[in-house]
Amino acid sequence: MAGRRIVVFPSSVELGPVLARLVTSRAEKAIASHGRFTLGLSGGSLVSMLGKELPALPELDCSKWVVGFCDERLVSFDDPESTYGLYKSKLFSKVNIPDSGILTIDSSLPVSECAEDYTRKLKEAFPDDHFPVFDLLLLGMGPDGHTCSLFPDHPLLEETTKIVAPISDSPKPPPQRVTMTLPVVNAARCVAFVSTGGSKAPILKEVLEGREGPEFPAARVVPTNGELFWLVDDPAAASLTTQVERLSSGAKL
Ligand SMILES: O=C1O[C@H](COP(=O)(O)O)[C@@H](O)[C@H](O)[C@H]1O
Fold first, then answer.
1. pLDDT digits (tens, 9 = 90+) for 50-86
2. What letter would DSSP give residue 16?
3. β strands within the chain, DSSP E
4. What is the pLDDT of residues 18-54, one digit of tens each?
5. Which residue of 76, 146, 164, 203 is surrounded by the most CB atoms within 10 Å?
6. Residue 75 C-alpha to ligand 1 middle, in angstroms?
7. How far does residue 143's CA lie from ligand 1's centre (Å)?
8. Which domains does the chain have, with CATH numbers?
């Protein structure tokens, strides 16, 4: 697929610093071009990696960052399942993103209203865009091929008008979540998936090399005008036969 870069690292130890430098290079570019950097974060295994790598960068300045969540679980912020709660303790407490630049859900609302409230926050943050155009979205992929909270065979995959959608029947707990929709994901200037570990090898092969039947949600992430990276480690890439780039920790993307 044109424009897609599949980059394989020996392990997540080498991948982490390159991911952190991808974030800061896209931040510098965005701030130089339009005065701020808009970043969408996913939960799961990404939280620990970013919490380790970003604060370790020398002279990291996040004062012009605006951060949203690609998806969020509808639980209180002190629940261990809360993506915001985890980022607060592992990342936001260690870097200088202004509180006003962190776009959170209101977890006290019922799920549909929560999605509407988060939609309003994104529209306010992106007043000029029909669909918010994030400078960078960081995505994970579950072993079932889901990304954000967009799950295989779910009707939300066909959403074409909403910015944020509620989901009450997530097959992965917790069941109630809100998620960016595919039109928002595919409007981004840059999307980077991070997928590590041998448990991701079978699904990674199907997502990147195709399969019979409907595409997995992660395979439907094809930014219209943006860059697409798949940053994976050797165990996750073990079954791939497609062409990949092999890099180590000193690389810059
Ligand atoms: O439930 C979720 O899972 C995906 C994948 O997580 P990972 O731990 O397998 O990387 C994550 O991207 C998403 O934000 C989260 O809500």
1. 999 999 999 999 999 999 999 999 999 999 999 999 9
2. H
3. 4-9, 37-41, 65-69, 71-73, 136-139, 164-167, 177-180, 190-195, 227-233, 245-246
4. 999 999 999 999 999 999 999 999 999 999 999 999 9
5. 164
6. 15
7. 9
8. 4-190+200-232 (3.40.50.1360)
Pocket of ligand 1 (CB under 6 A): 42-46, 70-71, 139-142, 147, 149, 172
Query: Do 24 and 173 meet the contact criterion of CB atoms below 8 Å apart?
Result: no
For 103, left (φ over 0), alpha (ψ -120 to 50), or beta?
beta
Question: Quick count: other Cβ atoms within 10 Å of Cβ 246?
Answer: 12
Q: Which amino acid is at 35?
A: G
ipTM of the complex: 0.97
CB 250 within 8 A of CB 15: no
**Residue 49 Cα, ligand 1 centroid: separation in angstroms?**
13
Q: What is the mean pLDDT of the chain?
A: 97
Q: Are 167 and 110 in contact (CB under 8 A)?
A: no
How many Å lie between the centroid of ligand 1 and the Cα of residue 47? Answer: 10
Q: Return the residue whose CA atom lies nearest to atom 1 of ligand 1.
A: 44
Class of residue 158 by CB neighbours under 10 A (exposed 0-12, middle 13-18, buried 19+):
exposed
